[in-house]
Amino acid sequence: MGATTTTIEAIAGHVGREVAVRGWLHRRRSSGKIHFLTLRDGSGFIQAVVSKAAVGEESFTRADHLGQETSLVVEGTVRKDARAPGGYEIDVSTLAVVGESHDYPITPKEHGVDYLLDRRHLWIRSRRQAAILRVRHEVVDGIRDFLNGRGFILADTPIFTPAACEGTTTLFAVPYFDHATAYLTQSGQLYNEANAMALGRVYCFGPTFRAEKSKTRRHLTEFWMVEPEMAYATLDDATDLAEALVVSIVERVLERRARELEVLERDTAALERVRSPFPRIAYDEAVDILKARGLPFEWGGDFGGPDETALAGHFDRPVAVQRFPAAIKAFYMKPDAERPELSLSVDVLAPEGYGEIVGGGERLDDYALLLERIREHELPQEAFEWYLDLRRYGSVPHAGFGMGVERVVAWLCGLEHIRETIPYPRMLYRLTP
Ligand code: 4AD
Ligand code: MG
């Protein structure tokens, strides 16, 4: 009788039966009489117990010399064992090496972060890094389910674009054949607005690029952003949607990725508090809070990392800050009718110092005013004619936002730095591997 091939994740369904697990050797120790192999297969980790009586002299000796990350197929019987990490063990009957591995460069000792980042293609095999990537997957899946379930249509926006969306200082220029310069998209928003006029409620979800010259723990040069956009919607509609989306993702990760959060030693109590309603404050009030907390902040300025941390520290869950000064926001923001120096914008700040996770608002839907803004910002009008068309032909109030996947993952996983939230981070001094 052949053994059933299974994943470690599904091992609980095979207690008392012969299974085959195909994976890699994570760790190895021996008592002399018995070798304990910790296997990983991508879905989880399990201890395999190897005795001479069960596998024979040759395999037994070989098992004691396997290098870390040797790939192997192990067959054996699954045993429930409360003392085992994960709750199950395999009593090995046969063991076959698939690919040898010698002198694996990432050992259980401490390595510096640059050393690890240089070996990111291997580092992702570690328990912690794999847990983070699983949380990331859950976040992405949760976003899609949430939006699809609310009638949003996925409409992809281009990565090569002819003009800026989020200011001209963070553009990556790429030669586009020999007749033009393309810019890697900073946000799909402008196209999203056109798509919303065609489809009602839409989203785009893909990589976005910012030539961020700063080295902070919150910035990547390539990051993934989900951007929902709604026709016939206001600033508060966008804020409501952002709040519901964040709550739904946090709930889902708590529910489905408890094991990963445990590996990451994440304090989940802080995440359990993420419930509706989020506090909503005006930028004006945010300034008062910062001043009361003794920060040297003046009305009109944009929040830096320490300001966001201080503001978030004032609340026990994410906070939505609305109505930033128009001068510090993008050209497409609609002004507040009562106080035109303000924009109908919203940022959602995560707790525990993770900063802005959502940025968005209501869009400028008036043709004449938009044209004025494009000129003020010295943007090339020709490149925005199509965008102006949306205001020429049946303009409606509309709103949306962008949420950065990596910022959310860093927060949910409780990470020091955003660089571990994406398989291959791109930063000012990091383009490899
Ligand atoms: O606030 P941002 O710049 O907003 C926009 O791009 C809008 N056009 C989105 C929209 O309304 N459709 O970026 C949105 C979010 C931020 O809140 C943050 O989560 C993330 O994208 N983000 C970054 N994440 C990682 N590295 C960076 N350099 C980021 N810049 C923004
Ligand atoms: Mg922003």
Quick description:
With 433 residues, this protein is an alpha+beta fold. The protein is 30% helix and 26% strand.
Structure description:
With 433 residues, this protein is an alpha+beta fold. The chain folds into two domains: 4-99, Nucleic acid-binding proteins (OB fold (Dihydrolipoamide Acetyltransferase, E2P)); 120-421, BirA Bifunctional Protein, domain 2. It is built from 14 helices and 17 strands. The strands form three sheets. An eight-stranded mixed sheet has the order 7-11-12-17-16-15-14-13, with helices on both faces. The chain starts with a strand and ends in a 20-residue tail after the last helix. The relative contact order is 0.11. The site of magnesium ion has 3 residues, from β16.
Describe the secondary structure blueprint for this structure.
Elements: E1 4-6, E2 18-30, E3 34-40, E4 45-51, H1 52-55, H2 57-63, E5 71-80, E6 88-99, H3 113-118, H4 120-123, H5 127-149, E7 153-154, E8 160-161, E9 173-176, E10 180-184, H6 189-199, E11 201-209, E12 222-231, H7 235-256, H8 258-263, H9 269-272, E13 280-282, H10 283-292, H11 305-312, E14 319-322, E15 345-350, E16 355-362, H12 367-376, H13 385-392, E17 398-404, H14 405-413
Parallel strand pairs: 1-2, 4-6, 7-11, 13-14
Antiparallel strand pairs: 2-3, 2-5, 3-4, 5-6, 8-10, 9-10, 11-12, 12-17, 14-15, 15-16, 16-17
Helix pairs in contact: 5-7, 5-14
Bound molecules: 4-amino-1,4-dioxobutan-2-aminium adenosine-5'-monophosphate (4AD) and magnesium ion.
4-amino-1,4-dioxobutan-2-aminium adenosine-5'-monophosphate is lined by residues 165-166, 187, 189, 210, 212, 219-220, 223, 225, 227, 356-360, 400-404, 406-407.
